[in-house]
């Protein structure tokens, strides 16, 4: 049953696990992985379009190194040359973003989520209008927040995790998250 499900849906291991646990409660991640390995389906096939097409390396003169700066990130601390820095960024259309000092993991988390969003939208689809992109992005976010079970949240969806936290410690919340669920009136 698990093998046929994996071959039919081509879902990742954790998604298969969460789906199959509804019918096989005693199923563990390691047992499912071993089953997939035995049947030669532990790795998902490469999907065309996952990676950008390789381009030929441009021929530049020896010693030339081309870099297009899009943004500069600094910590919230003082910049010795703040005015010069701000002027240079503005003149070259460079966005200056700041992160919290001594919190390098927040930047990595944001970058990973941005990568997830890009992989699900602009790297897979071509949009005729900006509105099409906005609609598809909204659909993806709804599926991510209300349907995708995450291993880091112990198999819960982000919405389920927030509701669980609200029930444990409601004083940390200003509003009841249960009133923000998707339903017939949305």
UniProtKB/TrEMBL annotation:
Domain of life: Bacteria
GO biological process, one term: DNA integration
InterPro entries named among the record's database cross-references: Integrase_cat-core, Retrovirus_Pol_polyprotein, RNaseH-like_sf, RNaseH_sf
Gene3D superfamilies xref list: Ribonuclease H-like superfamily/Ribonuclease H
Regions annotated as coiled coil: none
GO MF assignments: nucleic acid binding
Integrase catalytic domain location: 72-166
Name of the protein in its database record: Integrase catalytic domain-containing protein
């Amino acid at each position: 049953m698990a093998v046929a499900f994996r071959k039919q849906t081509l879902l990742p291991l954790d998604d298969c696990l969460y789906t199959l646990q509804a019918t096989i409660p005693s199923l563990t991640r390691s047992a499912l992985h071993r089953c997939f390995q035995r049947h030669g389906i532990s790795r998902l096939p490469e999907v065309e379009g996952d990676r950008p097409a390789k381009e030929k390396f441009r021929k530049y003169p020896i010693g030339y190194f081309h870099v297009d700066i899009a943004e500069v990130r600094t910590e919230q601390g003082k910049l010795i040359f703040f005015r010069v820095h701000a002027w240079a960024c503005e003149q070259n259309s460079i966005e200056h973003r700041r992160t919290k000092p001594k919190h390098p993991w927040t930047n990595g988390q944001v970058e990973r989520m941005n990568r997830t969003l890009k992989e699900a939208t602009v790297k897979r689809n071509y949009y005729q209008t900006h509105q099409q992109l906005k609609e598809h992005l909204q659909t993806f976010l709804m599926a991510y927040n209300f349907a995708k079970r995450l291993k880091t949240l112990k198999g819960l969806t982000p919405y389920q995790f927030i509701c669980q936290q609200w029930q444990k410690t409601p004083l940390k919340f200003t509003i009841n998250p249960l009133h923000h669920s998707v339903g017939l009136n949305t």
